[in-house]
Every structure is written in structure tokens, then in C-alpha cells.
Amino acid sequence: MINKDYILRLAEQIGYEISILLRLRKRNQYEDELLAIDNLLLKYTGMTSRFINSLSDEMLLQSLSPLGKLNVDAGLWIASLLKEEGAAYDALHNSHESYYRYTKSLYLLLELLYQEHVPFDSELYQETTDLIAKLTDFELPEQLEPKLFRYYEQRGMYAQAENILFDYLEHHPSKDMLEAGHAFYERLQKKNTADLELGNFSQEEVLEGIEQLNQFTI
């Protein structure tokens, strides 16, 4: 688990840099903001925006995980700055470019929250919620949905996790996701009624979900 004080210090440093970016955005200096973001990425990660955005989400994650574990510093800087880059493109009415920044940022945040077991009171969860909200009206990339499924279960949001599970299986039949679904319902069967209700779920819905899942053959 990431040390809470460490996250706070890193978030404070990132927040200071983002406050400067926000001032540029408020003055409608979007090109200057994009240039500043590129300089910050190079300064704190050694990579430019162009290079980062040329990589697939999976390749980016691999490049940040040389020993099989995500580099928290670089991952958080990139996730935070890509989100701001997406906002700058939003302000320029370029939803195509903003979409890819938001999805890549969310991909990294979801992986970081999973690998590091970040405390639930961390601001990173609000950042994740904000990104999910920005992508509500868009179709999510295939590689993002399993991580979002895992995230919702991790947060105890079982109804949302189930929605992601069946949407994914319907559009991207996958043996791995099918097995993940069975394991998901096995875990839910061990939970009490109160825990399920907190996740907007019930024992009856668990049984219905298992029955529906059994109809998938891959």
C-alpha cells in the first residue's frame, strides 16, 4: 500500500504545477498550456506528450513497469497531466484528442489504485470519478473495461461492476473475463445482505447474475 503521507506530498507537488496550468486555461492560453504540460511531462517522467500518446495503454503501462510494478511517481504525473491535457483539448473543442487523454489517464489511475491498494480517502478516487464522468457519453476502449470492472468491485460498487461485466462479454467475448465473472459472483455469495445492499445489490441479483453468466459459452 502507498504510504498516505507520500501520496499527499506527491499530490501537493502535482497540484502546485496544475494550478499554474489552470491559470493559463482561464486566460484562454490553451497552446501555452499544452506546451507547459509537455515540459512538465519531460521534466518529471523523461517522456514527451507526443511519445506518451503514441503508445497504446498496455505499452505505456509496460514502459512504466520495468520490474513488473508500476512506477508510482511517473504513473501519477502522467495520469494527472494527461487529464489536464484532455481538459485543454476540451476547451479547444477537440473531443477526439481529449477522449484519448482521458482514457489513458483513467487506465493508469485504475492500475495504480489496484496495484498499490490506495486508502479510500485518497483524492485519487475523486480524480478517477471525475474521469469516469467525463467519459460517460463515450464508448470505453476494450482494454479499459476489465480494469473498470475490477475497480467497481474493489470499491464495493457491485451493480456497476456487473453492468461492465455483461457489457464486455456481450461485445468482446473473452474466456478470461468469463472466468473473472464467475469468481466475482463466488465472492459476492460470501457477502452478507448488508454489504450487498451497500453496493446496490442483493442475494437475488447474485443468483440471477450467475444464471445469466452461465448462458455465455466461449
UniProtKB/TrEMBL annotation:
InterPro entries: DUF6483. It holds the Pfam family DUF6483. This is Bacterial transcriptional activator domain-containing protein. It comes from Dictyobacter vulcani.
